[in-house]
Give the backbone structure.
Amino acid sequence: MHLAVPHGTTVVALRFGGGVLMAGDRRATSGNLISHRRIEKVFAADAYSVVGIAGTAGPAMEMVELFRLQLEHYEKVEGAPLSLDGKANQLGRMVRNHLPAAMQGLAVVPLFAGYDLVAGHGRLFQYDVTGGRYEEQEFTATGSGSMHASTVLGLGWTSSLGTDQAIDLALRALLTAADADSATGGPDVLRGIYPVVVTVDAHGATRSDDTDLRERVQRLRDNYVVQYGEPAGEDER
């Protein structure tokens, strides 16, 4: 019997001048049904790192909670946080341990990003279902809308991006993904649902509030038109 379990899509991450940013839409789907409209897929892992989930929602959220607890436990025992490479490796081991479930169709494919206090800049990591860890230098995306989002990121990313520009670029990528991929949810003004956006820099992790995101989405609607002349973000109408 096939189980229609909720799946989360789409998450993007990119580097900018002061650090890294991760953003995710809020929709979870079960087959062709929208199972949740307000799911969160981007979480601060600790003070200087962030993790995003795509794939089977239940195991993914459990993995994130365990990952956060492990980082907290390590810092309490050792008196200092785990290095960013150590955090990335730990998450990779957790993904690898989940492989038997992934082989049964319950895959979890996270993104991880953080500010490296030793190196003094932000870093991005993506994974495959076997736990393979790959560092990206510019941007990355995961989930069903990742191809569309990556196209926008590739066209808009530069090494000189500031925080505001990075947030707008991530929102534009998610808007385009939502316009082309039915499993990705666009901003929903009527319900007050906006993407989760977290930036991480030398001062730590910061989540953008919905008031700011609403204003940014409105500006993007006024200035950005997708193919065929339709406004970006169909859910906003």
